């Protein structure tokens, strides 16, 4: 293999790596910007699955390119791939089942609100609507800070939501 061909391959690989990490950054920004409730809530949920599958794809890429030179990287890559694809499969499985079955009306009783810190309390705060439906199934649905303060003190709340991913489409 000539030196020029090797340099071209390295440049191409660097370009793909840069594009990949830019896409990961875009998906992280999507996670921060897109609301937790409403129609875009499911897009937010889908971005989780895409992010995990993208990182899994990166692991496969590393495994393929380092399989002959670095056996430790291959073993680590395979383990990380299994973990990432497992989590991505679990997330996307719930998402797909919710999209197939469609949203449901859920009447929550014994409603409580919960607030928690984001990543180490530095980036964001998360707000949750918690309660039980008529069949005593417990729900913990992420909501916006505005919705958190609007619903404070409510004992019952009715929502149109996707039950598996616990994403609220709208309040009824």
TrEMBL record:
- Transmembrane feature ranges: 15-34, 46-64, 73-91
- Look up the domain of life of the source: Bacteria
Q: Which UniProt keywords apply?
A: Membrane, Transmembrane, Transmembrane helix
Q: What's the protein called, per UniProt?
A: Uncharacterized protein
> Per the UniProt entry, what species is this protein from, by scientific name?
[Ruminococcus] torques CAG:61
């Amino acid at each position: 293999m000539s030196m020029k061909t090797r340099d071209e391959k390295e440049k191409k690989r660097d370009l793909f790596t840069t594009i990949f990490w830019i896409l990961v950054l875009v998906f992280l920004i999507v996670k921060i910007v897109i609301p937790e409730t409403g129609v875009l809530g499911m897009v937010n949920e889908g971005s989780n699955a895409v992010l995990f599958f993208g990182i899994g794809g990166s692991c496969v890429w590393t495994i393929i390119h380092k399989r002959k030179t670095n056996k430790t990287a291959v073993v680590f890559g395979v383990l990380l791939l299994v973990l990432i694809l497992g989590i991505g499969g679990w997330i996307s499985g719930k998402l797909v089942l919710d999209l197939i079955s469609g949203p449901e009306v859920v009447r929550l009783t014994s409603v409580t609100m919960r607030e928690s810190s984001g990543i180490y309390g530095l980036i964001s705060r998360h707000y949750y609507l918690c309660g039980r439906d008529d069949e005593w199934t417990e729900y913990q649905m992420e909501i916006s800070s505005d919705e958190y303060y609007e619903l404070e003190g409510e004992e019952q709340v009715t929502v149109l939501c996707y039950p598996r991913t616990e994403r609220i489409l709208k309040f009824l």
